[in-house]
Give the backbone structure.
Amino acid sequence: MKLSSFLHFATFGIKTVLFRKKEPILGTIIVTDKCNLKCKHCSVNNITAVIHPYRQIKGEMKQLYDMGVRILFFCGGETFLWKDGEKTLRDLVIEAKQMGFLIVNIVTNGTFPLDLPEADLILLSLDGGRKEHNEIRGDTYDLIMENIRHATADNICFYMAINQINKHAVKDVCLTARDTKNVRSVSFNFHTPYPDTKELALTQEEKATCCREIVRMMKEGAPVFNLKSAFPYLIRNNFPTPCHQCVVMENGRLSTCGRCIDVPGLCEKCGYFFVAEYTLLFRGNVKIILEMLGTYLKYI
C-alpha cells in the first residue's frame, strides 16, 4: 500500500472514531447480477440478468467518489460477464484508478481467464476442496485452478463462504492459498442466511469450531486476510450492524452496508467478516485497529 493511501485511511479512521462520523470509505458497485453459475448458497444471481451500461456505472463511480469512498469493489453476479461495446471489466478498473480510488478490487467466481493485473485484489470464490466446492458451485474447481495457474498477476485472494456443506474444508482452502502460485491470501465469511438458503447457516458452536481452525492455520503460516480479534463477535453475532462506512450501489440504488439490509432480521444474522471488522474498527476497538494495520499492509 502506498504511503499516501495509508495516511488517507489513517486520517479517515481517526476522524471517524473521534467524532463518530458515518461517512463511507468502502463502496461496492454491482455491475450485473447475471451469472454463469447457480451456486447453492447464493440468493442474488440472475434476478434481472441485466448488464448495466458503462455510462451508468461511471456515473455511480463518480457518485461514490464524491461521497468519500476510496476503496471500491466491483461485484456481480459474475463480474467478468460485464461488457459494454468494446468496454470490459479492465476498463472499469482503470477508470476507477484514474478517478482517484486508492484500492480497486473485483469479486469473481474464477471461471473466466484472470487477466486483470490492474486490480489490487481479485477476490475469487473457492468454497472448499474439489468435492465441497463442486457440490456448491458445480463442476468448476479444476477450471478455476487452471485459470489461477495462468493468471497474469499474483493479486488473487480466495473468498470462502463457510456453510454446512464446506465447514470441514477450512484447512484445505488455507493450505491451497498458501501453496498456490498467484494466490496472495484467503478471506472467510460465514454464510448469511437469506430465507431461501437458511438451512446452510452454521450454529454458534460450528462457527466457533471454524474460527479455532482458522486461528490454528494462521499460526501455521496460512495467509489469512481476516482479523482474529473479530472472531468472538462473529461467533456470537454481537457486532454492531449495519456498517455505515460501507455502501453498495446497484442500478442507481444506494444501500448502507449491503444488499441484504432490506431483508427483515438478516442483519442480526450477518456472516460477513468485513462488516464485523469495519464496525469494530470504527468504534475504536484497539485490538482490531492494531491487527488491521498489520494485515492490510501485508496483503494489499
About this structure: The two ends are 6 Å apart (CA to CA). The chain has one domain: 3-17+24-299. The mean pLDDT is 95.
